[in-house]
Amino acid sequence: MQFISFVRRGECGFGALVDGGVVNLTGRLAPGVDTLKAAIAADLLGAAADYVAGRKAEHALAELTLLPVIPDPAKILCVGVNYEMHREETKRAKVAHPTLFTRFADTLVAHGDVMVKPAASDCLDFEGELAVIIGRGGRNIAEADAMDHVAGYAPFNDGSVRDFQRHTSQFVPGKNFPRTGAFGPALVTPDEIGDVSALPISTVLNGEVVQQASLSDLIFSIPRVISYITSFTTLQPGDVIATGTPGGVGERRDPPLWMKCGDVVEVRIGKAGTLVNRIVAE
C-alpha cells in the first residue's frame, strides 16, 4: 500500500492512496492513532490495509496538502558517498563503514511543495535518494534481520548547500537550511516494492536526467546501514534513513550545475514513486 501524511481543513492526518484519491485513516485504526508515525509505532499498517480494502476514495488528492511522509521523525540519518560513481567524482577514499550525518525534520518539504534556495548561497545542489522508513525499532539489529524492521520506502531529495557543507569536514551546516530537502510523496510498503535493490533511481532537472543508477549500486546496502546505525543508536518507528545519492551531482560538473529559482527537480525511483518540487528563492 501507499500511505501519505496531509493537512485537510487545517487538521493534520494520514491516509492510504486508492483509485481516485485517498481513504482517511486518521483516528480510525485505534484511539489516538492520528499520524502515520503513530500507526507505524502501533504496528497497524497491516490493519490499515484491511480497513482500506474495498473502500472508495473519500478525498481527492487536490483537497489535501501533502506533508513530508513522516512529518515528525525522531531521527533522520543520511548516508554520504554511498554510490561508487559518487565516491569517484568526489575523489574520496574507500571506507570500511558508512559515512553518516543528520538532518532535521524542519528542513524538509513535501512532494509538490517548493524547495527554497537560501539567500546565503547560490550553491544549492540536488541529491536524489531512496529513503527508508523504519517500522519496528531496535538496537544492535543484525543485517540478516534488518529488512524486517522496514515499514516502507519513499523518494528523498537531500538538497545540499555545498559551500556551507564544505566549511569544515562536517556536512551538517550544508544539509540543514530550512526547506532545502524534500521527502515524498508516499510511504510505499515493501510488498509493493519487491526487491528494493532492483529499483532504478534518477534525478531529473528541468526535464534533463542528471543522475541515474540502480539501488543495487549502493556501496553499503540497506541491511548493512541499518545494522551499523543500530550498533551505536536505537532506531524508533518512523525514523528515516536517506541511503545516499548517485554520481552526477551539480557540484562535480564543469561548470557546476546549481539549482536556481524556477527550476523543477524530480526524483524518480520506480515503484517507490516520483518526488517533484520547484525551486524558489528565500
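The record above closes out task 2.4. Task 2.5 opens with a second protein, given below.
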Amino acid sequence: MATVIQRRKAVSLNPLKSSAPLGAALAYLGIEKGIPLFHGAQGCTSFALVLSVRHFKEAIPLQTTAMDEVATVLGGASNLEEALLTLARRMKPGFIGVATTALVETRGEDSEGDLRLIMERNPELAETKVVLASTPDYAGALEDGWASATTAIINRLVEPWSPSIRSFQQINVLPGVHQTPVDIEALREIIESFGFYPVILPDVSYSLDGHIAESWVPTSLGGTSLSEIANMARAVHTIAIGEHMRTPADTLTAMTGVPATVFPTLTGLEPSDRLVSLLARLSLKPVPGRLRRHRAQLVDAMLDGHFHFGGKKVAIAADPDLLFSLSQFFAGMGASVVTAIASTGGNRNLQRIPVENVIVGDLMDLEDGAAQAGADLLVTHSHGRQAAARLGVPLMRVGFPIFDRLGVSHEETVGYRGTRSLIFRVANQFLSESHEHRPEDFGSAIPAPVITTEEGRHASGTFATH
C-alpha cells in the first residue's frame, strides 16, 4: 500500500492541477443546450476559457458574472441575476450551470439562497434549468469540480423514484473527467451491444468531440438532454468510473433506488472483463462476438507490447483517478512506476498505486523524482514539456490540458479496443527513442578486432593483404 505524502510549499513553481470551477464547466458542457457560468471575476473565467479552447480547439461558451471591486465588497447577487437574465434573453439556453469561484466563496456569500430568490422573482427564467455547484478554486482540482457539478445536476434535475416509474432497459453512466469524448462514445457502443439504452451524465461525446455544426449555436453543441436526466430513475443499473464519481453515484442511488457499480478504471484487460461481465449478467445475453474479437486483439497486443514495456521506468503526474488508471496499466504491462505525483489528496485509490510513495504536489516534484529515479518516460499534460526537455526524457501527454497536439479528444483508452490503442501508443513512444547501435556508441568498452594474417603478423582493425 502506497503512502500518500502531502507536500507543503510556500509556492508552486510549475503547477500540476487545474481548478475545480474548470472541472465543473466541463461537466456543464455535457448538457444539451447548456452554458457554464462562472460566478466570480473575469480573470478566473478568462484563464479557464483559454485552457479549454487550446485543449479542445473548439469554441467554448463559457460566461462570467464579472464581479468587480464594488461587487466584491457589497456582494455579487446582483451580478449573478443580471448574468442569468442576459443569458436567458440573448442565448435562449435550456440549461445554465453556475460554478462559484474563490472570490465569492472566500467572501462567504450564500449563493444558493441568492439563486433561489432570483428564480422566484424572475418568471422569465422559469423555462431555463439553473444549477449551482460550490467549486472554490482553493479546494480540490478538476476531478472535484466535475464531481460537484454532476452531483448538483442530479440533486436538481433527477426526478425521484415513484411507483409509477417502470424499469426500462436503461443503463446510467457517470463518466469521470478523464474520459475523452471518444471514450464515452466507445462506452455507449459497448452498452448498446447488449441491448441497453445508455444515459450518460455528463455526455461530452458530441459537444466536445470536434465537429462542425450545421449552423452557429450559442450553447453547447450536444450532451445529455434534460428529459434523460429527469428519467434516470428508469435505469436498471448505474455505472460510475473513477473514485471521484462515487459521491454522484451514491446520490443518484439514494434518489432513485437504482443500484450502482463504481469502476476504479476501465483501462486494462481485467477492468474491461468486469464491465462486460456486468453487462452480460444484467442483460442475460451472451457477450457479442465483436467484443470477444476485441478481447482477443487486446491479448495479442499485450503479448506484442510487453517486450517494450519490461524494465522501463515511468514517472506519472495527473489527477488521482487518471494517475491510478495509468499506474495500473503500466505495472500490468511490466513497467515500473518510479514516481507518482497527484494533483490532490483524499482519493482512496491513491493508496492502491503500485509505488512506495504518492506525492501530492506539482510538476517540480515530478521532475525531481524522475531525475533521481532515472525515468525513461514522463507521463503528464502539456505543461510537463519543459521538464521533459531539461531531463532529456520523452513525454507522453495525458489529461488536461493538452494544447500542443491535435486529436486529443479522439484518443481512446477504455475497454478492450481503447487499451489496445494505448499499448500501441506507448510502445511506439519507446520504439521511437531507440536506435541502431554503432561501434562508437560503446566507446572503448569493445576492443578493435584482431585478425591474424597468413604470415603470422597481426593487423588491428583491418585486413592485411599480400
